[in-house]
Specification:
The protein has about 180 residues and is mainly beta. It has two helices and ten strands; from the N terminus they run αββββββββββα. About 5% of the residues have low confidence.
């Protein structure tokens, strides 16, 4: 029992040391860099390989915040390499037509403060009232997702048989009583 506990403790320490070797990064994703007026888009800030605190979102000048902040965390271990990430996402709707900049966001990681780069967003007129929706990025598939997303096997259904036709009823014959002599 002591060997198992010692092995697990050593394994956890190795994973923690490998996680520290990965360089932290703070990135910025946008679902589209040009949008039709009257629609919304997604902005996502992601910190990888570090524990962050005091996330400071940009002011989003020229946009209404329709949704957010939404946050998510993930940890993965692939071939002994540990990666951690935390994401903050917002849904933004432009207030007017024009060219706008989304200012940098920042987050503290230990003694460092990481910032994203600013990005330009173009808002164009929408005279036809076309509705756009933020495109969903391909998510990492979990083991069970593959199993449950398979097409279901349909059970063969019996082919419906036509209802039997009713035979016209014939009048019942009277039974004759026979007597043997």
């Amino acid at each position: 029992m002591k060997r198992i506990i010692t092995f697990l403790f050593g394994f956890i320490i190795c994973l923690a040391l490998q996680a520290q070797e990965n360089q932290p990064s703070f990135s910025f994703e946008i679902s589209t860099d040009s949008i039709l007026m009257g629609n919304y888009f997604e902005v996502k800030f992601t910190l990888e390989n570090a524990n962050g605190k005091n996330f400071a979102a940009p002011t989003f000048e020229g946009f209404n915040v329709v949704g957010g902040p939404n946050s998510s965390m993930s940890t993965s271990i692939v071939n002994g390499v540990v990666t951690q990430s935390i994401s903050y996402s917002y849904y933004l709707e432009p207030k007017d037509i024009g060219q706008y900049w989304i200012e940098p966001a920042s987050i503290e990681t230990g003694d460092n403060i990481l910032e994203t780069t600013p990005i330009e967003v173009l808002v164009v007129p929408n005279p036809d009232g076309i509705k756009q929706y933020p495109q969903q990025r391909e998510q990492r598939r979990l083991f069970f997702d593959d199993f449950f997303s398979r097409p279901r096997m349909e059970m063969p259904q019996p082919t419906p048989q036509p209802a039997p036709k009713k035979q016209p009823q014939q009048p019942k014959k009277k039974k004759r009583k026979t007597v043997r002599i």
